[in-house]
Design brief:
The chain is an alpha/beta fold. It is 35% helix and 20% strand. A hairpin with a 4-residue loop joins strand 16 and strand 17. The protein is extended, with a radius of gyration of 30 Å. About 2% of the residues have low confidence. This is Site-specific recombinase.
Length: 415
């Protein structure tokens, strides 16, 4: 009888995939060094630990823990849920997040996916039995600390306003240094151009198109956008005036500011800095803006991208205006109008219909017995068009009368 001994197969131990998350709150030289030191620490720790393999270091530099816009953190969680990470290392609870609810929700998502989160300072591993109990307790303290710091910071900012000292800001055309705004000449020339061309009858859209075609770019290096340059036209900063506390954050968790409509005092600081725009030019722009809005939209100009229908088509279901949109079909584009609610990408709760512009204009000129479409005539004649979900439109005329515009019965063009 022959007996053969079969050797046991070699079992290669599975390496644990370990990633780290590093965040520092402000983008200063000192904190940038802290950021680099943390990255170096985790690189060395993962490399020196037997059984661990490097799964990446995810960082957010100059981001607060309360903000929802943390690209590094978002990528970390996505990769962990995708099964690419076994352990996440981070310095402390406050580096991970300071909102208890969001923190625990994230940790529980990680736990369900089999991913451990280890907080070095607090010596917590979320996959241990007592990890979540300790985490809940300590996260509450971290959130309280964050709210206390935020309250102190807010008090410090607001206490400046009554004394005419603004908080730091960097509107296009200026740099902020030691409490003052100083003109950046290259940017200021573009601001002046936007104002001058607007008074010359050009829309911000047309001006921006020329700026971008000339290779000029915004401060971030991106193309200029008309939605941004429009705000310049109404910004009193350009005549040397600051309005402090026009916006505020009701709570630390609010990612963006809320318009101050009387909840807090506002402070107007005149002659605070050197103006870019002369006050007479600024006042003339405000008067022109008011005139254009009163005559059918904020950009009713010879070169504008809008016409007399702007702000005139009114949804009878939700009360919002119809917006002008562009659609491509078979290599060609055309304009149509649709309720603003439906354009948000959350369905069409109003059951509103898309109205092709060429057909709508033909219908209006036919009912008004006009030889052709003319913005000025339409503005003087029609004050509002009510649009319902059944293609039945009603035009309200300036003389107080109304006329039906039966879009469906007139042979509508499908969008």
């Amino acid at each position: 009888m022959d007996i053969t001994l079969l050797p046991s197969p070699t079992v290669v131990p599975k390496l644990t995939r370990v990633a780290a998350y590093v965040r520092v709150s402000r983008d200063s030289e000192r904190l940038t060094h802290s950021h680099s030191a943390q990255v170096s620490h985790y690189n060395q720790l993962i490399a020196a630990t037997p059984g661990w393999t490097f799964a990446g270091i995810y960082t957010d530099l100059g981001q607060t823990g309360t903000t929802t816009h943390r690209d590094g953190f978002t990528r970390l969680i996505a990769d962990a849920l995708a099964g690419n990470i076994d352990i996440i290392l981070t310095k402390s609870i406050s580096r991970f997040a300071r909102n208890t609810v969001d923190l625990l929700a994230t940790v529980r998502d990680m736990k369900q996916a089999g991913v451990a989160v280890r907080f070095e300072r607090e010596h917590i591993d979320t996959l241990t039995a007592d990890g979540e109990v300790l985490l809940t307790l300590l996260a509450s303290f971290a959130q309280a600390e964050s709210e206390s710091i935020s309250a102190n910071t807010t008090w410090g900012i607001r206490s400046k306003y009554p004394h005419g000292r603004p908080h730091s800001r960097r509107p296009y055309g200026y740099r902020f240094d030691h409490g003052m705004l100083h003109i950046i000449n290259t940017e200021a020339s573009i601001v002046k151009r936007v104002f001058d061309e607007f008074l010359a009858g050009h829309s911000p859209e047309a001006t921006v198109e020329r700026l971008n075609a000339e290779g000029l770019r915004s401060r971030s290096g991106a193309p200029f956008r008309a939605s941004v340059t429009r705000t310049w036209l109404e910004n009193p900063t350009y005549i040397g005036t600051l309005i402090c506390q026009a916006y505020y954050r009701p709570h630390i968790a609010n990612p963006t500011g809320t318009r101050n409509t009387g909840q807090l005092p506002k402070y107007i600081i005149t002659d605070h800095h050197t103006p870019i725009i002369d006050k007479t030019v600024f006042d003339a722009v405000q008067a022109e803006l008011a005139r254009r809005r009163a005559s059918g939209g904020r950009a009713l100009t010879p070169t504008g991208g809008t016409n007399a229908l702007t702000h005139r088509i009114h949804c009878t279901t939700c009360g919002r205006h119809y917006q002008r949109r562009t659609k491509a079909r078979s290599g060609r584009t055309y304009k149509y109008w649709w309720c603003e609610t439906a354009t948000k990408g959350h369905g069409n709760p109003c059951d509103s219909h898309q109205l092709r512009e060429t057909h709508l204009q033909h219908l209006i000129t036919t009912r008004l017995r006009l030889p052709g479409w003319d913005n000025a005539t339409i503005v003087e004649t029609i004050t509002r068009i009510d649009a319902g979900p059944d293609y039945q439109l009603t035009a309200h005329l300036s003389d107080g009368s109304t006329i039906p515009l039966d879009y469906a019965a007139s042979g509508k063009e499908a969008c």
